[in-house]
Amino acid sequence: MTKTYAVPDLHGRWDLLEIALAQIEEEPPGKIVFLGDYIDRGSGSREIVECLIDGPRPGWSWICLKGNHEEMMVRTIIGGRDPSPWLGNGGDATLRSYGQPFDGSYQPELVPVSHVLWMDSLPLLHRDIHRVYVHAGVDPLKPLDAQDAHTLLWKRYPEDYDEGHSGFHIVHGHQPYEDGPLCLKGRTDLDTLAWATGRLVIGIFDDDVPGGPLDFIIIEEEAPPKEADEPAID
Fold this sequence. Notes:
InterPro entries: Ap4A_hydrolase, Calcineurin-like_PHP, Metallo-depent_PP-like. This is Serine/threonine protein phosphatase. The chain is α/β, with parallel strands linked by helices. It has a single domain, classed as 4-Layer Sandwich (Purple Acid Phosphatase, chain A, domain 2), CATH 3.60.21. The chain is 27% helix and 18% strand. The chain contains 7 helices and 10 strands. The chain has helices spanning 14-24, 45-54, 68-77, 84-97, 113-121, 149-154, 194-197, and strands spanning 3-7, 31-34, 61-64, 125-127, 131-134, 169-172, 182-183, 187-189, 199-206, 215-220. The protein has a 5-stranded mixed beta sheet with strand order 3-2-1-9-10. The termini are far apart. The model has no long low-confidence stretch (mean pLDDT 94).
């Protein structure tokens, strides 16, 4: 049996990722799919990005998907967009992790270009025999190879929506449930608002068996103090 481990929204919680990797890597080598939103809100965005760029230990396979927060950062820094929406939704914490002072300045040049280009290059979904891994969700009316990027990065499912896509089980984050994960017939939502709650839930999937998770790794650490009002965008 080979396994896939799905790691949802980290949002700068480098401390949780360190613990998660240590526990996952106690198992025989397999695949880890990171579901996006590595940055913003928490204090360790830079450390997470550097870790993911460095890649896995020998024998392991890592797949890093793009989240809507990576998209916001890329479009702000290299796309020239007004920085206010990104900064107001956790981007300020990301820049501070790269050395920007707490003085209200905006210094995107502190972020290495290689980091921004890495985020820009990330895939939007990963498909294996039984499942589709994506940051936010998929449009059930479109083939997987014709999905719109905005849907993959920003979609919100009705809470009771339990369908997958053409026989595939959907594994995603983006839509937080503090007491999650949300496990339904056709989809699994792993986002438990880890950046604020300190509770990260990692789904473990048997690559040979269709459907939802085989088990979970649950990490519960102290929630950090908030620096500002809670952002509006997940």
